TrEMBL record:
Name under which the protein is recorded: Diaminopimelate decarboxylase
Start and end residues of each Orn/DAP/Arg decarboxylase 2 C-terminal domain: 43-395
EC number of the protein: 4.1.1.20
UniProt-listed GO biological process terms: lysine biosynthetic process via diaminopimelate
Taxonomic superkingdom: Bacteria
Domain Orn/DAP/Arg decarboxylase 2 N-terminal per the UniProt entry, residue ranges: 48-304
Assembly notes: Homodimer.
Active site (catalytic residues): 368 (proton donor)
Length: 443
């Protein structure tokens, strides 16, 4: 239907000839009838398009001397890893579980960057045994462990260093990571970043390859990204001057904002990358250093817009002169982001997506928890029990942060493209929920 892009925040959906919402050429009601609810749905074509948008921009602005690394914490499954491999991107993993997923999917280990602020010895063993491309060192204890494992393994390990550039992003404190008061990395301003790199250069089984920073998530201010690049390159110049080391790779992280509601900005990621590249080249010229290979790590902005979640409405409860609650068959177990930091979403009723929005309701989940809310005070058409609700922009940090709270099984993920749907994560059942339970023999 003409004009549907203006109606919807999500670029993944449109309205078909039945006046139903569809995604990837699949009618959302048909998906629900086949796979049930709640249901995560990912538009494969849009996911791949988002990958290519970043890859094309990096190649254009850095003359092919860059790499896009997908931040898999946004959404990590074996099928997603396979798509990332096919699109020629690298993979950012932050745990042994994400690394194991990549290994199982056959992802090229040389394109894997292993992050995390408290990697265990066992996780580092797994990474080094499988020859990951970069281990991103977060602290001095980790540096010692990596060198010890590398020495015992008879390997020379490529390492990067997570550096805090000292930038306050003024976003929610839970997703702001570049300031000095952060659990991640080592700060420039107090000298700890310089100190640990100095120490690493003396360790025989390590190759100091790159620096990494990440200033936060869901950021819309281009100036923050430009400032981060400037601060990091000035540090690269300092390392060259004082330690005689040329850092050949600079990872500027991710954090690009995503349009969740009509109030959010629409970022032109290409222009963002182009503007930052001008800063990179300018500072390098001014400081007399080579332009390093530039790495970026988008995750949310690749996965989030490509996903929706479908729910079935159960009860509709109106508290006169207070609030109208619409309860769905999911909630904070499949999307905890509102409960954690009041994240905002948009939604429509699947079989009347263009109907006038005439009443204000709050979408609540089914958990035994007062904070189990998905969307507070959203305008929708009159909602009735049995309706199917589509919540937009749920491709990132929904499945990956899901839980079995209240012993609720996790929903499946369906990948759609060209009117074809394929399951990439199966629906859990009650057997999956109790799979690891044990009753001791003496009970």
């Amino acid at each position: 239907m003409e004009g549907c892009e203006k109606m919807f925040v999500s670029k993944a959906v449109n309205i078909n000839e039945k006046n139903h919402l569809e995604i990837g050429g699949c009618d959302c009601l048909d998906l629900v009838n086949t796979y049930g609810t709640p249901l995560y749905v990912m538009d494969e074509a849009l996911f791949r398009e988002n990958c290519r948008r970043y890859k094309n921009a990096i190649e254009k602005y850095y003359d092919g001397k860059g790499l896009v690394v997908y931040a898999s914490k946004a959404l990590c499954t074996t099928a997603i890893c396979k798509i990332i491999e096919q699109e020629g991107l690298g993979l950012d993993v932050v745990s042994g579980g994400e690394l194991y997923t990549a290994i199982t999917a056959g992802f090229p280990m040389e394109r894997v960057y292993f992050h995390g602020n408290n990697k265990t010895y066992e996780e580092l063993m797994l990474a080094i045994e499988n020859n990951v491309g970069r281990i991103v060192i977060d602290n001095k204890e980790e540096l010692v462990m990596v060198h010890e494992i590398a020495y015992k393994s008879g390997k020379k390990v490529n390492v990067s260093f997570r550096v805090k550039p000292g930038i306050d992003t003024n976003t929610h404190e839970f997703i702001s990571t570049g300031q000095i008061d952060s659990k991640f990395g080592m700060a420039i301003e107090n000298g700890e970043a310089f100190e640990i790199i100095s120490k690493a250069l003396k360790l025989s089984n390590l190759n100091v390859m790159s620096l990494h920073c990440h200033i936060g998530s869901q950021l819309f201010d281009l100036e923050l990204f430009k400032l981060a690049a400037k601060v990091m390159l000035e540090f690269v110049a300092e390392l060259k001057e004082k330690l005689n080391i040329e850092i050949g790779e600079l990872n500027l992280g991710g954090g690009f904002g995503v349009k969740y509601t009509k109030e959010d900005e629409e970022i032109d990621y290409d222009s963002f990358i182009g503007a930052v590249s001008e800063v990179v080249k300018g500072v390098c010229s001014q400081k007399g250093i080579k332009v390093p290979k530039i790495v970026i790590e988008p995750g949310r902005s690749i996965a989030a817009p490509a996903g929706i979640t479908l729910y079935r409405v159960g009860s509709v409860k109106e508290i006169k002169n207070v609030r109208k609650y619409v309860a769905v068959d999911g909630g904070m177990t499949d999307n905890p982001r509102y409960a954690m930091y009041q994240a905002k979403y948009d939604a429509v009723i699947v079989d009347r997506p263009d109907a006038p929005r005439t009443e204000k309701v709050t979408i609540a989940g089914k958990c035994c928890e007062s904070g189990d809310i998905l969307i507070k005070d959203i305008m929708l058409p009159e909602v009735k029990s049995g309706d199917v609700l589509a919540v937009f922009t749920t491709g990132a940090y929904n499945y990956s942060m899901s839980s079995n709270y209240n012993r609720i099984p996790r929903p499946p993920i369906v990948l759609v493209k060209d009117a074809k749907a394929r399951i990439i994560v199966k629906r859990e059942d009650y057997g999956d929920v109790i799979r690891n339970d044990i009753i001791p023999e003496d009970l």
